[in-house]
Structures are given as C-alpha cells and as structure tokens.
Amino acid sequence: MTGWTEDGLTRAWRALARQEAAEDWRFVHLTGMGVVSVEAGCHFPLGREALIVSFQGSSSVNPAQLPEGKGFDVACIEGQTVFAGKTAIGLVRRPEGSPEIFTIMVVDVLRTLAVAASTTNGDVMHAFLERVREWQAFMSRSHRPLSPDAQIGLLGELWMLRLLADTSLAAGALDCWYGPLRAAQDFHVRGGAIEVKSTVRTGSFLARINSIEQLDGDRMPTFLCAFRFEENTDGISLVGLVSELRERFRLAGVQRGFEALLMVMGYLDEHASLYGRTLTLKDARAFRAEGDMPRITRAMLPAAIRSAAYVLDLDALEIPSIGFPELINQFGLDQS
Fold first, then answer.
1. Domain, as residue range, for 259
2. 262: which of 146, 193, 267, 274 fits an S-S bond (Cβ 3.0–4.6 Å)?
3. What interhelical angle do 99-117 and 6-16 show, nearest 10?
4. How far is CA 87 from the centre of its chain?
5. Where among 115, 140, 165 does a domain terminate?
6. Are strands 222-236 and 192-199 parallel, antiparallel or unpaired?
7. Which of 61, 57, 83, 59 is closest to 74 using CA atoms?
C-alpha cells in the first residue's frame, strides 16, 4: 500500500503543496482498509499537511468530543465532494507543530487503523480516535528531563538500535525501532520482535512487563533482551550514544526521522547536561518468549481479564539465554 512510509507521505504532501485557484483543500488517495478510506491532504492558505480518514455513512460527530491538544488539529471535513456520503475526520498539522513528529504520528495512526480494520467486528472509528487522543496527550505534556530509569531505558533501546545498525539492516534499523510508537515491543525486525529491558541496579534483574502482548504477540520470533549496565569512566553516556547515532543516520540521510523519535521518547538537547553519566555494558542476554519461558499469555487468562502488567525476575529464569550474534541469526541478519 502506497503512502505508508514517512517518505511516501512526505512525497504525497509535497505534490499537494501547490495551491490551484482559490481552493481550500487538495487531496490524494493513499489506501483503503475495508470500509475506511485514507487520503493525504493539504489545507490552504498555509499549506498545512493533513491525514483524512473517512468512514462509510454520514454519522454525526460532536466536534466537542474530538481530541484536542498541541501540535495538530482534529476536525470533521465537510463540504468536500470526495467525501460525499461519508464521515471524514482530518488530522491537520498546526503551523507550530513539528513536521517530523506529525509524520511519525500519522504513520503510527495508519498502522493502528490497519490492525483495527483487520479485526472482526472492530470499532475502527473508536480505535482511530483513541490513538489520536494518545498522541494529543503526548503533544500536550510538559517535557521535563528524563528520570534516571527513563534514561537507562532509552540508553538500552539506543544500544540495541546501534547493534542492529551494525548488521545488514544498516540505517534500515531505524525503521525497526517501534518503542517510540507505543508498540507492544521496542523493535519489530522482519516478522519478529525484540523487547529491551535495561538496568544499572545490582541484585536481581527485575523487568516490568507492561502488557500481556509484550511477550505474547503475533510476531515470531519474539525475544526479551536484558542489558545490565554499570558505571565506568571509560564508558559512554546517553549524550555520547545519541551523538554517535545522529552522525550515522545523518550520513544515511535519515537523521530527521531519528531526531523525531528521540523527541517522542522525551530526549531534548536542553537537558543534555543532566545525561552525562558514563556506562559500559556488563552483561547482555536474550530469552525467546515461547515454550517454558515464564510469562502471562492471553490463552491462560479468562476472557474477562482485558489487560495485565507484571514483574519478571530475569535472574530467576531457568531457561537458556543466547547472545547477540545468535540473536541476529534468528532474524536472518548478517553481522557487518
């Protein structure tokens, strides 16, 4: 399906950016998902990028019930021939909104729509608006410095990103980083997934599993990767790792996407002076989420339990672990 990538969306918006006559809108069809139609749009006179999702039938949507927040507007699109007989809801970037963040948000919303549309009897409009509300909440929150735990969590994800970028994925590893997009796992690699847990604490490695789907999803294989760091003056700081990856992705021409994902994770350069602690990797293990791996699965739970989170003691696991070379082999990747 065209238009699903950030580059595809950017090309579509660029093609729409030239206003003809005194039109308020220009549209181009991106894809259809069952009864849902998706268009890229450009709203004039400012040439603001938009994503329009239209649903069959003219249902009344109370504008007061649409999500509100910073970065982009959510509005019903009316009076446009292309949406006759449909309910069309548009996400329109505000002038002050980051184009990179908006593009990443749109890609994530498209993916959410696809999942909802493929679910039998799924309420696609509800799933769409709920995802938009989550993004509005992100756009509206104040950006405080990352907590110590959040710093270690981000360091672990970036460490994995660097490891994957050192494989045959190269800069394509950036497209595998789904942690900032609120996916169940941090990385989607081909048909599989990797969830990263990191700590600097001594004693038992206690990993919080945030959802049932984190270790019991549809992606195969799924691995839980555990990084234990320790402070070392010869190590690398979060700032240093960010700088290293920035240069790598700059040379590959994808730095803007990397910067936007960093922002979603709450990393801002204005807080860099607080992220100078240097660390080295003391231990790395990966566990395959299958068979005897202790975890909560959907199949073992009563239908009335809709969600669950739990803490897993990784040092108490009595199953074999593998190292990174074997992990990348599991995904059919080559180490560069």
1. 148-330
2. 267
3. 110
4. 27
5. 140
6. parallel
7. 61
> Using CA atoms, how far apart are residues 27 and 88, in angstroms rounded to an integer?
12
Q: Is residue 336 part of a domain?
A: no
In a domain, 335, yes or no: no
Model pLDDT for residues 99-140, shown as the tens digit of each residue: 888 888 888 788 778 877 876 555 788 888 888 888 887 777
On whether the CB atoms of residues 39 and 29 are closer than 8 A, the answer is: yes
Domain end marker among 140, 166, 199: 140
The backbone torsions φ and ψ at residue 176, rounded to the nearest 5 degrees and listed phi first, read -90, -10
pTM value is: 0.79
Which residues on adjacent β-strands are paired with residue 41? 27, 50
Predicted confidence (pLDDT) per residue in 155-204, tens digit: 999 999 999 999 999 999 998 999 887 789 999 999 999 999 999 999 99
Residues 212 and 233 occupy one common structural domain:
yes
Within a domain: residue 219? yes
Judge whether 17 and 25 are in contact, CB under 8 Å: no
The domain total for the chain is: 2
Under DSSP, the state recorded for 151 is H
Give the residue from 220, 216, 199, 200 showing the smallest Cα distance to 208: 199
Structure tokens at 214: 């984190």
**How many angstroms separate the CA atoms of 278 and 197, rounded?**
18
* Interatomic CA distance for residues 242 and 326, integer angstroms: 26
